[in-house]
């Protein structure tokens, strides 16, 4: 898959490590920034990932900030984006199986690297279960 990844300064270091991890899993990574630990505004970075997902230029997006909260708040303002703020492998898996999340949000200041890598691997490998969940996703798009 093609994955767009973005982070603010709070998530910069984790993003850098995850790029290599995701590439090693066989995916293509498009890094929209930030490109240094200097302070930036998370909505500006998040918008680039959201636009890539909505524009179909990539299959899914990953957004990282200090807590993951700001990134998830901004991403979910866009129709067609289902951004899930996840904390562990279980929430990452459920966000795909039940919610068909197309953006994974993470908080670099609340996760260890090992947990973050587990989450990403699970999230990329898990398909939407469909069935009873499909009409609920349709309802989200109709709000
Ligand atoms: C930056 O200090 C921090 O506010 C940001 O990374 C994020 O946690 C916001 O939700």
Any descriptors?
single chain; 143 residues; alpha/beta; Ribose 5-phosphate Isomerase B, Chain: A; five-stranded parallel sheet; binds D-ribose
What does this entry show, briefly?
The protein is 45% helix and 17% strand. It has 143 residues and is an alpha/beta fold.
Order of helices and strands: EHEHEHEHEHH
CATH H-level superfamily title: Sugar-phosphate isomerase, RpiB/LacA/LacB
Q: Can you give the helix content as a percent range?
A: 40-55%
- Report the total helices: 6
Please report the total strand number as a whole number: 5
* Secondary-structure content class: alpha/beta
Question: What is the CATH topology assignment?
Answer: Ribose 5-phosphate Isomerase B, Chain: A
Shape: globular
CATH class descriptor name = Alpha Beta
How many whole angstroms does the radius of gyration measure? 14 Å
Report the uncertain regions: none
The CATH architecture can be given as 3-Layer(aba) Sandwich
Bound molecules: D-ribose
What value does the average pLDDT take? 98
- State the end-to-end CA separation: 29 Å
The tally of structural domains comes to 1
């Amino acid at each position: 898959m093609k994955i767009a990844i973005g982070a603010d300064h709070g998530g910069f270091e984790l993003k850098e490590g995850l790029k290599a991890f995701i590439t090693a899993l066989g995916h293509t990574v498009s890094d929209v920034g930030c490109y240094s630990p200097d302070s930036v505004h998370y909505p500006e970075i998040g918008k680039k990932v959201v636009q890539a997902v909505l524009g179909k230029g990539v299959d899914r997006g990953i957004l990282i900030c200090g807590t993951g909260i700001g990134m998830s708040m901004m991403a979910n303002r866009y129709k067609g984006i289902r951004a899930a703020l996840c904390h562990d492998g279980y929430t990452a898996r459920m966000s795909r199986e039940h919610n068909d999340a197309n953006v994974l949000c993470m908080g670099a200041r609340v996760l260890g690297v090992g947990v973050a890598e587990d989450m990403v691997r699970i999230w990329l490998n898990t398909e939407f279960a469909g069935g009873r969940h499909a009409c609920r996703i349709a309802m989200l798009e109709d709000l």
